[in-house]
Amino acid sequence: MLKYIHIIYLKLSIRIMALNCFMCLKNEKFSNLWTWGGMAPHSDHFEQYFPLLMWGFNLKFLDIWDVNMLRRPDEVNTPQHSTHLYASDHLIVRRGQEFQLKVTFDRPYKPSDDQFAVEFVIGGSPQYSKGTYIPVSVAKDRQSPWAGRVVDSTDNVVTVGITPAPDCIVGKWRTYVAVVTPYGIRRTRRDESRDLYVLFNAWATGDSVFLDDADEREECVLNEVGVIYHGAYDDMSERPWNFGQFDYGVLDACLFIMDKAAMPITNRGDAIKVARKASAMLNSHDDDGVLVGNWSGDYTYGVAPTSWTGSTEILLNYSSSKTPVCYAQCWVYAAVFNTFLRCLGIPARVVTNFFSAHDNDGNLKTDVILDENGRIDKHRTKDSIWNYHCWNECYMSRPDLPQGFGGWQAVDATPQETSDGMYRCGPASVQAIKHGQICFPFDAPFLFAEVNSDVVFYSRNPRDGTLDPVKVNSSHVGRMVVTKVPGQDARRDITDQYKFPEGSPEERTVLEKAEEYGCHREKATPPEADVELDMPLMEVRVGDDFELKLEFNNTSDQARTVDVYVSGNVVYYTGVTSSEFLFKTPRHILSNLCVFPAEKQVMEVRSQDYMRKLVEQANLHFIATGKVKETGQIITSMRVVSEEMMVTVEFTNPFKFNLEDVYVRVEGPGVMPPKYKHYSLITAGSSLTWTEGVTPRRAGPTKLMASLDCAALRQVYGQAQLTVKP
């Protein structure tokens, strides 16, 4: 027995001596490439796939001299993965699609050399069972969540093809190469240059964000510059925006957003969860997210929302300061959210809904409360109608919903109402919204109300507080939903993707379906009033005095007396009143139908009353309500005037030197008074963009003129010809 013990001891001694000799003989040039066995990526998992040879020693095992991630734009990976536009020092690929790397060994690779694997690790505690540690072998008999193969072997260099799973975690992975030796596992050391970004893949059929339409995919993933529509339904304006999803540092900033939200690593491969988490994180409510909303008009401690021209500055400021950026309104939230989604590879677009309802109390109606005299009760009227509202759509499958509800999903980062305790909205299937299937997650009822709610006027009884409907407008909300045409700077009407035509049989069916899930539409039919009130469309030039006309139509055979309340307000585009500049209470006596059925009343609106109260993106909102003395009936009418437009001045410094103490001036007769802006420094090759809101004062042809002046550069002028329509 003692003899056998000595033999075993002798074998162990020889093994240890051989190992020591091997360590001494290895070229010190490559010693910093290696680490032994117990490195972070859970070597016990690796050994499940590569059992050690416990006895004998073979010094012919592979030794790794170099690992090349093939990350340059002119190499094979980035063009094939459509990631060549990213400004990054690392390899960026899309999941569900093969990428390649080159491994240089100390000797030519042979097919029998299957003792090596490429390892990918993400997060702070990687585990194979959670998909955060992925060992990839080229051996055909060894299974891995990610496929691996030898693409080419020339001399000592082996090209390895690796295909990440189409549902793998999206984020920044660490890369190692490991080799099984008779003495344990040897693994390359941590090298940040080998870090790998894996994104969602709209080109891969197995990915949940696969988008088959090539033009739509090109627009909604790869286009860096977009158009955001705003203004009024009958006078739309366009705002260019630099999404900048490929700019240096933006990808890391987007991943930081998920880190800041403490989003579990294992959830970051699920497009549904990523979009929902981001809709909460893009606003600063609840979680110190990216942007602070501000609709007050006072932007003293930040940047006015109208001053932003792109997402890059916002995202880089947030990731560097770790604090919310000031300030945003709906189109800024939507634009930055669009950058986040496109940057991670999720197809996304910004949409604008004109006359967008904000259902404050969740009853899927827009309730306007009138007092006993027919005047709007501003304290009890909580719902509002935004002149326009921007949100996002992202494209993905919805395995959590019945078949047919995948595709475009509405998501909204503007903080309006809470969802599951946080200010967020969506993703909600656009198909579900259109067909009234508002029982499905997430937040479909709120989005349904934004495009398809009724505006109901109620008269409040002062004695018992009961509300009686006096007028229902079923076609005012969701007048038009638009987005950008793929590949063109043109507008596309996508209203039919959200709702059926007003008054159509399909729409009635949808409303009935929505009622099954809690859409309690007003079913009471208000009594037909025998007096009608209307405010005709006005040709108004903002800045001038004008006349507000009320038209009364008495359809009865008796005289009627109407006590009217006329209110004129400067209203933000969100429907929130900034200030009231007009309030009149005329009494109008109407003749009977046989004498004179239609009568008019005219009142003057002076520019001096409203011009000093205008705010950016403001509308003049007039509402007339009245009560018929003889019958007690309530009559109403509304009219919105919006004439704002934007002027943008752009300049690029083409020189190799900086420009200092620069003044830019712009003015236009009948359009805007002279204005100037001072820039202390315009660096070489950089650009400036100055956008200003203006209100044309008169119709007809005119010009906008701009100049730039500094000590180093004089006589720089620009002009634009335009025609202001009445």
Automatic annotation (TrEMBL):
Domain Transglutaminase-like: 322-415
Keywords attached to this entry: Acyltransferase, Calcium, Metal-binding, Transferase
Keyword Calcium applies: yes
Gene Ontology MF annotations: metal ion binding; protein-glutamine gamma-glutamyltransferase activity
GO term, biological process aspect, one: nervous system development
Segment forming the signal sequence: none
Binding sites annotated in the UniProt record for Ca(2+): 452, 454, 502, 507
EC id: 2.3.2.13
Entry cofactors: Ca(2+)
Transmembrane parts of this sequence: none
Cofactor details (free text): Binds 1 Ca(2+) ion per subunit.
Residues annotated as catalytic: 330, 389, 412
Class of enzymatic activity (EC top level): transferase
Similarity-based family: Belongs to the transglutaminase superfamily. Transglutaminase family.
Name of the molecule in the record: protein-glutamine gamma-glutamyltransferase
Recorded name of the encoding gene: LOC110532935
